[in-house]
């Protein structure tokens, strides 16, 4: 049995004017996590939400808020995001080469779960020290599109990274160890037609925005994504 499947609708594709009700709708349809895309208009060419919005949403839900920080200076966001009630804090390896150890320790001290993300062009080797460090990250987010926007085309070539990651860290599939090394998460362009590829490569956390929010029956998409992860784990 593999690491538990986590289906995380990307709230970037929701109606931001009705964020609390959109969040509740997703949870009632079976979502495990809510994926929150924090963008600073600098690390990526788009500007979305920050700690004040997380704080507002937190008043309406106890759900796991899986925050993906697409920002140039993640360290500046640790305190505000912790105070706001973020659950997971995933920063980008490309901007954290010098200070990831400090970052991880501060994220944990604020009661959040640290994760590291990498862009499609970043070699997977760059996250190894963070997974194996004295203070390890608990999730690796493999971007399957260039960060910045929802609704982009899935890049299948990124799947090799997921495969390598699963092979290198077989303990990822052992329950309990999960909470030390955590999950392999994939983000971007994932919908019913691409999830099987990601799931069979070893991803167990599935972030999907446009395919969930754009569906006439989003609950069916969430359950299909989950079945894909569970099916792939049974076949491995
Ligand atoms: O991080 C990002 C984009 O930068 C993602 O969270 C996307 O927003 C996922 O949305 P879809 O690709 O599924 O529409």
TrEMBL record:
GO molecular function, one term: D-ribulose-phosphate 3-epimerase activity
Cofactor section: Zn(2+); Co(2+); a divalent metal cation; Fe(2+)
SUPFAM superfamilies referenced in this protein's UniProt entry, alphabetically: Ribulose-phoshate binding barrel
EC annotation from Swiss-Prot or TrEMBL: 5.1.3.1
Gene Ontology terms describing biological process: carbohydrate metabolic process; pentose-phosphate shunt
Keyword Isomerase: yes
Residues the entry annotates as binding a divalent metal cation: 35, 37, 68, 187
Swiss-Prot/TrEMBL keywords: Carbohydrate metabolism, Cobalt, Isomerase, Manganese, Metal-binding, Zinc
Cofactor note as given: Binds 1 divalent metal cation per subunit.
PROSITE patterns, per the entry: RIBUL_P_3_EPIMER_1, RIBUL_P_3_EPIMER_2
Catalytic residues, chain numbering: 37 (proton acceptor), 187 (proton donor)
Catalytic activity: D-ribulose 5-phosphate = D-xylulose 5-phosphate
Enzyme superclass (EC): isomerase
InterPro entries: Aldolase_TIM, Ribul_P_3_epim, Ribul_P_3_epim-like, RibuloseP-bd_barrel
Sequence positions that bind substrate: 10, 68, 148-151, 189, 209-210
Entry-linked PANTHER family: RIBULOSE-5-PHOSPHATE-3-EPIMERASE
Assigned protein family: Belongs to the ribulose-phosphate 3-epimerase family.
UniProt protein name: Ribulose-phosphate 3-epimerase
Organism, as annotated: Quercus rubra
């Amino acid at each position: 049995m593999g690491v538990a499947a986590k289906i995380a609708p990307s709230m970037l594709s929701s109606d931001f004017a009705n964020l609390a009700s959109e969040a509740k709708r997703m949870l009632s349809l079976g979502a495990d996590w809510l994926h929150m895309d924090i963008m600073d208009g600098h690390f990526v060419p788009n500007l979305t939400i920050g700690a004040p919005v997380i704080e507002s949403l937190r008043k309406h839900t106890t759900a796991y808020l899986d925050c993906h920080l697409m920002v140039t200076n993640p360290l500046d966001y640790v305190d505000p995001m912790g105070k706001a009630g973020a659950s997971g804090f995933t920063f980008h390896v490309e901007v954290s080469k010098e200070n990831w150890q400090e970052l991880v320790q501060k994220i944990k001290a604020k009661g959040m779960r640290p994760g590291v993300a990498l862009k499609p062009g970043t070699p997977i080797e760059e996250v190894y020290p963070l997974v194996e460090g004295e203070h390890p990250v608990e999730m690796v987010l493999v971007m399957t599109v260039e960060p910045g926007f929802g609704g982009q085309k899935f890049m299948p070539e990124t799947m090799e990274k997921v495969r390598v990651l699963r092979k290198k860290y077989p303990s990822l599939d052992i329950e309990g160890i999960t909470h030390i090394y955590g999950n392999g998460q994939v983000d971007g362009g994932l919908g019913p037609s691409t999830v099987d590829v990601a799931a069979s490569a070893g991803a167990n956390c599935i972030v999907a925005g446009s395919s969930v929010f754009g569906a006439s029956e989003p609950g069916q998409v969430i359950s299909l994504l989950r079945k894909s992860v569970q099916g792939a784990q049974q076949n491995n």
